[in-house]
Amino acid sequence: PLQLLQPKPIPKRSGTSQRKPREPQIARSLIKEIFSHFVKMPVTRDAFKIVEKCSERYFKQLSNDLEAYANHAGRKTVEVADLEVLMRRQGLVTDKMPLHVLIERYLPLEYRKLLIPIALSGNKVVP
């Protein structure tokens, strides 16, 4: 006797995806904007790809170090002091070059206002 062919049931997906979560990435446009600010000359695509990879690795290492400093201090939150210790270890912050001087020198005014309470411009104090 002939039997009717039954379609195989399709397993239903649960609400979660089976894909492996991707790591967040820094926007290419942001890396390009920052890099072009300091380089001031044309850069080939191959060279820029290397700059992107280096930037990704640098920020990944930076975040791992800051996380380790906070964990070592028994905290779950990274604080400004952690960043300052890291920058001291890298030789960026010294007794002659404090963190707020680096902020004033390299960041635009809108970021300076967020990071330091009073942004200095030459001899004038701008609240």
Automatic annotation (TrEMBL):
Residues 1-24 are annotated as: Disordered. It is found in: Chromosome; Nucleus. Residues 27-118 form the CENP-T/Histone H4 histone fold domain. The keyword Transcription regulation does not apply. It holds the Pfam family CENP-T_C. This is CENPT protein. InterPro entries: CENP-T, CENP-T/H4_C, Histone-fold. GO terms for biological process: chromosome segregation; kinetochore assembly; mitotic cell cycle. The gene is Cenpt. Keywords: Chromosome, Nucleus. GO terms for molecular function: DNA binding; protein heterodimerization activity. Belongs to the CENP-T/CNN1 family. It comes from the Eukaryota. One of its GO terms (cellular component) is nucleus.
